[in-house]
Amino acid sequence: MNVRQSYRSRLQIATLLVLATLLTACGINNIPTLDEQAKAAWGQVQNQYQRRADLIPNLVETVKGYAKHEEETLTAVIEARAKATSIQVDASTLDNPEKLKQYQQAQDQLSGALSRLMVVSERYPDLKANQNFLALQSQLEGTENRIAVARRDFILAVQKYNTEIRTFPGRLWHSVMYSDLPVRETFEATPGSEKAPQVKF
Predict the structure, then answer these.
(1) Residue range 69-100, pLDDT digits in tens
(2) Does some domain include residue 191?
(3) Tally of domains in the chain
(4) Residue ranges making up the domain that contains 168
(5) Which of 43, 140, 154, 187 has the maximum number of C-beta atoms within 10 A of its C-beta?
(6) What is the pLDDT of residues 171-181, one digit of tens each?
(7) Is 90 within the bounds of a domain?
(8) Alpha carbons 24 and 33: distance in angstroms, whole number
(9) How far is Cα 178 from Cα 173, in angstroms, rounded to an integer?
(10) How far is CA 19 from CA 12, 23, 30, 33, 194, in A?
């Protein structure tokens, strides 16, 4: 009797070890891992947009010192920045396509206002030679490039996540264990925004 119980215990332990190994190797953790990667990638998109927003007050002040007659353009930039920073889409609202669309539209409006500001700066040679303005130009160009990279990384992260929950075995695990995690909306860039805006001074 003791031999049988010992044999059953060993068999149960061996079975549990085999099942644990199979579950680990079958991708059960892929869905939450990819979900977190998509959220982290979105965090980088927001981080870069915030970096751009942080540069704008200094840029506006620098331009204002040289281009006093461009009040309408400066006001448009300030208002677009205020609108862009007022809409926040964090990981908890990332699955809301309407909120994502509003966020992107506000960012696109800010990009447009910045482009108009750059065109205005062409009229002021002293402004274009200002060291502070040149430094801000460099930072803004770098930030626009970082935004483009962050958006691309987010699109790829969402693609991996969505593919995982729509293909086998991820689809099985999603329906059994992770049904509360929806298919993610990918970043939908407006036409022409796949390229970073050219900032020329």
Answers:
(1) 888 999 999 999 999 999 988 877 788 888 88
(2) no
(3) 1
(4) 31-177
(5) 154
(6) 888 888 888 88
(7) yes
(8) 13
(9) 7
(10) 10, 6, 17, 21, 46
